Amino acid sequence: MQPFWFPNGAIDMPTTLTLKNIPDAVYARLKSAAEMNRRSLNSEAIVCLEAVLLPTRLSTGERLARARELRAALPQQGFLADDIDAAKREGRP
Predict the structure, then answer these.
(1) Which top-level group of life is the source organism from (predicted)?
(2) Distances (CA, A) of 7 to 1, 3, 11, 54, 92
(3) What's phi and psi for 57, nearest 5 deg?
(4) Is residue 6 part of a domain?
(5) Which of 12-21, 33-42, 64-73 has the lowest mean pLDDT?
(6) What is the rounded distance in angstroms from the CA atom of residue 36 to the CA atom of residue 47?
């Protein structure tokens, strides 16, 4: 009989990882993020690693739909090309 927590017969045991020599600034940011998200340091570190190492893949259509949603949420202002060029020359982003 197979335990219910191993789907499709896969035995995927969690691995323990010990990190050494973590810079103080990194530790402080991780601790702050953990507190803000109401997680343990371990859980926050796992979430951060997953976000970087296992990014969600979006299809081209999904990415375009998201870009259109973001664009639609912006205030509808008209910018003239000359105004944009002038702002660039002034060093404004």
Answers:
(1) Bacteria
(2) 13, 9, 8, 20, 54
(3) -90, 125
(4) no
(5) 12-21
(6) 13
